[in-house]
Write a structure and sequence with these properties.
Layout lengths: L9 H9 L16 E6 L5 H17 L3 E6 L12 H11 L6 E3 L19 H12 L15 E2 L13 E5 L2 E5 L4 H5 L10 H32 L4 E4 L15 H14 L3 E5 L6 E3 L8 E5 L7 E7 L7 E7 L2
Helix pairs in contact: 3-4, 6-7
């Protein structure tokens, strides 16, 4: 495998926290090997879905098999404002999930906030505000029950990236990586009105996050290999395989993920959102052990039930849950 820098906070931190056994966590169910997660993305979109979201949360909370909720980014639509008030209101809704709630950001959440109908914000200022709202405790999830997670907060090279998260359940490694639509922030801000100074700041942001993301993928698969994990789950917002879409913002991440997955050899599940239409496929000819799922988005009445059985060869099964 490619040489990797083993960060000082390393596996010791993972063994303490990322297994989901922190003091606020639910006890591990020793007698049950299969566990269930609810996976959502691109929700709630617009006032109607915001109004429906409490009933959606209740439906997930009533399902006692669900142990984690993963949100794949876009906490609002691409035409709604990026105000602090909206952030607070949406995260108040997310906090009503009974189970640990884990989020990776989407482009609507900060990258696209330069749009006039979003408020013409500086995207980097909004990214800082989003981090404050979404990750108030760098090493803990949100939700009614909170688990400890490993993040890059303790990494001296990438300490700003508290949103890159890692935890283990039943030995399976779960990793959230901050890869977003709008060509991963390579799409110009303010349309044709982007200034040279804004362009320089945007490209610097991209390079820093790219380096952090690649390091995080390295670490995630390093943990999986060293711990003998039966499988790996990687979640990100961007649909990195949209036909005909500009891909230079995704190329390095896609290549690194394919390389690691091929070397790992065991099941890898890639979870994505962004394009709103459900699909499942195997995106890598050279890594047939990778299954990708794009979750249905722009809806407040569908979620993906992901069942994980580390004892089975496939490890993952899933169904689309609709209605309340």
């Amino acid at each position: 495998m490619r040489p990797r820098r083993l960060i000082a906070f390393g596996l010791a931190a993972l063994s303490l926290g990322a297994a989901g056994c922190g003091p606020e966590s639910p006890p591990l169910e020793r007698g049950r090997e299969t566990f269930t997660l609810a996976v959502i993305g691109d929700t709630p979109y617009g006032d109607e879905q915001v109004a429906a979201f409490p009933e959606f949360v209740d439906a997930v909370n009533r399902d006692r098999r669900v142990r984690r909720v993963i949100h794949l980014g876009d906490i609002k639509s691409g035409s709604s404002t990026c105000t602090d008030e909206r952030y607070r209101a949406v995260f108040a809704l997310y906090e009503t999930f009974d189970d640990p709630f884990l989020l990776t950001p989407g482009d609507n959440d900060w990258t696209d906030c330069h749009r006039a109908n979003n408020g013409a914000f500086d995207p980097l200022e909004r990214l800082a505000a989003l981090r404050e709202a979404a990750y108030p405790e760098p090493h803990r999830s949100l939700g009614g029950l909170r688990i400890r997670v490993r993040t890059q907060a303790d990494d001296p090279w990438h300490s700003a990236f508290v949103e890159n998260r890692l935890w283990r359940d039943r030995g399976v490694v779960f990793s959230l990586v901050h890869v977003v639509g709008s060509n991963n922030d390579l799409a110009p801000w303010f349309g044709g009105a982007e200034t040279p100074e804004q362009r320089a700041r945007r490209l610097e942001e991209f390079e820093q996050r790219q380096a952090a993301n690649l390091s995080w993928l390295d670490e995630s698969f390093e943990v999986a290999e060293r711990s003998g994990a039966p499988a790996v789950v990687v979640g990100m917002q961007a649909d990195t395989f949209v036909p005909g879409a500009p891909g230079e913002g995704f190329a390095a991440v896609v290549e690194r993920l394919a390389d690691h997955s091929s070397e790992f050899g065991k099941p890898v599940l890639l979870l994505q959102g962004d394009t709103h239409a459900y699909k499942s496929d195997r995106p890598f000819a050279g890594a047939p052990n990778v299954t990708r799922i794009v979750v249905e988005g722009e809806t407040a009445d569908e979620w993906l039930r992901l069942q994980v059985d580390p004892r089975s060869r496939a490890v993952f099964t899933w169904t689309r849950e609709r209605g309340f």
